[in-house]
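Tutorial handout. Part one gives the primary structure; part two gives the three-dimensional structure as tokens.
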Amino acid sequence: MKYLELLFAFSMVFCVFGAMAIADNHQQDVQQQAGAMGAPPEMKECRMLIGDWDVVQKWKMDPTSDEWMTEEGTSTFEYALDGATVIQHFESQMMGMPFAGLGMTCFNRETGMWQTSWVDNMGAQIMLMEGDMHDDKMVLDGTGLWNGQKYWARVSFYNMTDDRFEWSYEMSMDGKNFVQTGHMVYSKKK
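Part two.
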């Protein structure tokens, strides 16, 4: 009888260890399928953005005009979700009214592209853009609606240093001919 009990006990131990090994292999398979957790290494390229900024912005409300409107504002960039994204809070005046916007930027490890989203209290819509970074210049493209009409937009971050960078906004009604309608200079607050 003792032999059967001992054999049963050993069988149970092997079953438990076998189940644990299967569960561990399954967990490893799930993690491999899900991908790496946390921030992609490319997100380190955004570290110079983190902090508080003063912004001087120029806008053309009519793309065919040569007249630029100038406003000042502030912006804050911060890492979120363990560094997987950078969130931007933006505040200024626009045509004499308070203007506020919120953006999120991340590196999509699946596509190998940079992605950004933007929403503000003027457009009240989320614009999604995607692009890449070369030679310290990030260029992102997307589409939006303005007065019911589809348009193409391109934003560029360039001349980036630890305490200053420039941003430009271009738009097109046909997706081919782009006109610059916005320009900003960000200066890091001391």
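Part three, for discussion. Strands lie at 51-59, 69-80, 85-94, 97-108, 113-120, 127-134, 137-146, 149-158, 164-172, 179-188. The first helix runs from residue 2 to 34.
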